[in-house]
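Here's my example:
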Amino acid sequence: MSLAKQALSAYRGALRATSIAFNSDVAMLQAARAQIKTKMALEVDPDMPDKSVEERIKHLNDVSLFLRRNIVQGRKEEDEENKYFLNIHKDTELGDNDDIKKKKGKKNPFGGEMASGGCCGGGEIKMNERRG
């Protein structure tokens, strides 16, 4: 496949990934897409001046994968003080509890024990999986 086709494929994949990650947040969706479009238009990316076109295409594919698997947006439930709705979708990478248990009791980089208050200051989280 030519570099132009690879770049176009990576660009389209990034746009699809932003749709999945930011589907209900119009401002973030537009900002992410504008950033992708701006970076794609540059012949040399000032943030990665030493990267070849192939490396930049790989980077964009990696960013797309990260957006699909690791970005989960949440919004606070209107009538509930400590409840949040998380946009978990089919591509979201879900860890297991073993990862959390391993981290318990570790020291933080500044000394002392790491806080274990959980997500969102100990608030309740409501998760729904979007099918589609």
